[in-house]
Amino acid sequence: MSHVQKRGARWQARYRGPDGRERSRRFDRKVDAERWLDLNGADIARGRWVDPRLGQTMLREWSEKWAATTAANRPSTRERDARYLRTHILPAFGDRSLSSVTHLEVRGWVAELSTRKAPATVRLASQMLAKIMGAAVDAGVLANNPCDRVPLPRIEREEMRFLTPEEVERFARAVAPRYRALVLVGAYGGLRIGEMAALRRGRVDILRGRVDIAETCVEVSGHLIFNQPKTRAGRRSVSLPRSVASVLGDHLAHFTEANPNALVFTAPEGGPLRPASWRRRYWHPAVIEAGLNPLRPHDLRHTAVALWIASGANPLEVSRRAGHTSTSFTQDRYGHLFPEADAALAERLESLLSAPVRERGTEGVKLALPSSQGS
Fold first, then answer.
1. Most buried residue, 24, 146, 246, 300, by most Cβ within 10 Å?
2. Whether the Cβ atoms of residue 103 and residue 150 lie closer than 8 Å to each other
3. What is the pTM assigned to this prediction?
4. Which helix (H) or strand (E) segment is 158 a member of?
5. pLDDT of 327-347, one tens digit each?
6. Distance between CA atoms of residues 194 and 197, nearest Å
7. CA atoms of 201 and 193, how far apart (whole Å)
């Protein structure tokens, strides 16, 4: 039951919710009061009605409840989410009730954030807000997600940096001797820096020239965390050129403990390699000395993929060696490095077409296509 009554100079709309409680609200115009009743009546009829009191929860409070339900995420992901929440979301919406945040306000927030942050940052922050609000919708706290259909900035892929074999060798000679093997394994094996920091002696087979990637290391809030790769494809075996395997063998003999569980690449003082401090102390000085600035550790991985492709590897081989989840990702990221693939295919097709021509002279070409059955 619902009705609208005149109360002084304003109009009061009242209705009874599915929980049996009566709700009311006052409006300056009768038409607005009637529209409010119609909207709530439609939600009740569709089973989408939400108790408006639940939406009064502060976003800061709700985000804490939401974060507690994401405990299955990796520590590095949780740290990133906490940083984005603290830096971008809570300053804008933390002291607002969930139901007060509108679609237009979210659009404005995204637009403003885009003026001072990179597109990738804006997308991650807005997607996190959408997850927080989506959880409120799923829990019956909100009727709609104000983040739905908010346009996000497009991420333009940056030009990837690839080194030539000569540049790889120059850089390997510039870096500290105990990390020469690390540079070569990264540039020819395609391992990520976290995978090399977690590589153990028992997973290296010098005779076969292979390394098994089964673990990764990340630094979270000053603590090193060893974990399995994010995806099943990330757990893989990669073969190395004989010369690189030889350098790695020398490294094991001089810098690694004779223990299958010992880490292959360690800090100079011993113990696990901390990628952040290692980059500052050893990577950047070597980059400058080799004249390769700017260069990131991840660029060694890009270099490896480029060298594989230049050596004739197809997308499936590249995908498996790199630990990509699919060949479509490989094509999307490195497809421009396969410029000769279409030309080679055209040449093979031409050979198929030209063979009948040579046999029949100038009568033309007739292709035998599979006949359809049951059409």
1. 300
2. yes
3. 0.69
4. none
5. 888 888 888 777 665 566 667
6. 5
7. 16
